[in-house]
Amino acid sequence: MATRKNASKRTTRAKINLDLDESTIKKSSKKAKSATKSLGKNMAIIIVLFLIIGIGLGIGAGFYVCRNDCFEIVGADELTLTIGENYYDEGCKVISLGKDISSDIEIETDLTINQDGSLTGDETKTYYILYKSNDIKYGKIFTVTKIRLITFVEESESEEFESAQDNTTNNNQNETTNFENAKLSTQLFDLEKSKNTIDSLSIICTNKGEING
Questions:
Q1: Are strands 78-82 and 145-153 parallel, antiparallel or unpaired?
Q2: In what order do the strands lie in the sheet with 106-109?
Q3: Residues in contact with 141: Cβ distance below 8 Å, sequence separation at least 6, in sequence order
Q4: SS3 call for 82
Q5: pLDDT over threshold 70, residue 56
Q6: Alpha helices in the chain (DSSP H)
Q7: Would you say 83 and 121 are in contact if contact means Cβ atoms under 8 Å apart?
Q8: What is the Cα–Cα distance from 111 to 92, expressed in whole angstroms?
Q9: Rounded CA gap, 213 and 201, in Å?
């Protein structure tokens, strides 16, 4: 009987120990799952923060590198020349992503290209010079082109054009001079009016003084 009781006690203890082990395992499993979830959330937050910081640094670096970028024609956009006169193109100033690529710009034109690189027109009309780029920024991300217009005229027409420009300049100068003269006349009139007023007051004061005296 004692042996059976001892065996029963051992069995009961074994069951209790087994239940305790299972309970401990479940608790440990729950803790592990909770820790995993917490770690996963923290890692997600850290990854998002790193992404935001990386994007911010990338944008800042991009603005700094591209701060002087430009695509602009050097010289006048429109010109008037006489037939037979050669034009030496000044080209464009192009800086893309902080790098000067002015020498890589492609040019299209309907002008005649001479052996020395100069350009000339054979007819009295307006010609064009088209500038474009194949680089990443101005050729692929943004399609940017610039056009210079050159009008070729007969020599007499050129003289008439210059004369018209001179007349316009002279007229503008004359208008400015007339305006300044009118302004000066107005100021002189105001001064004269003020002087007459002062003289009148002076006479009144003098007469009043004589009467009182």
A1: parallel
A2: 78-82, 145-153, 126-132, 106-109
A3: none
A4: strand
A5: yes
A6: 2-65, 155-212
A7: yes
A8: 17
A9: 18
pLDDT one-digit tens code per residue, 86-133:
999 999 999 998 899 999 999 999 999 999 999 999 899 999 999 999
Alpha carbon dihedral 9, 12, 14, 18, in 10-degree steps, equals -160
Q: Which two tokens stand for residue 48?
A: 């998002």
Place of tokens 């100021």: 187
Query: Cα 60 vs. chain centroid, distance in angstroms?
Result: 15
**The token pair that represents 180 in the structure block:** 């300044």
Residue closest to 88 by CA, chosen among 123, 106, 115:
115
| Structure confidence by residue, pLDDT tens digits, 146-192 | 999 999 998 875 555 556 566 666 666 766 666 676 666 666 667 66
Instruction: Note the pLDDT tens digit of each residue in 22-36.
Output: 666 666 666 666 666
101, 39, 98, 45: which is closest to 67 by C-alpha? 98
Handedness of CA 110, 115, 117, 123 (dihedral sign): negative
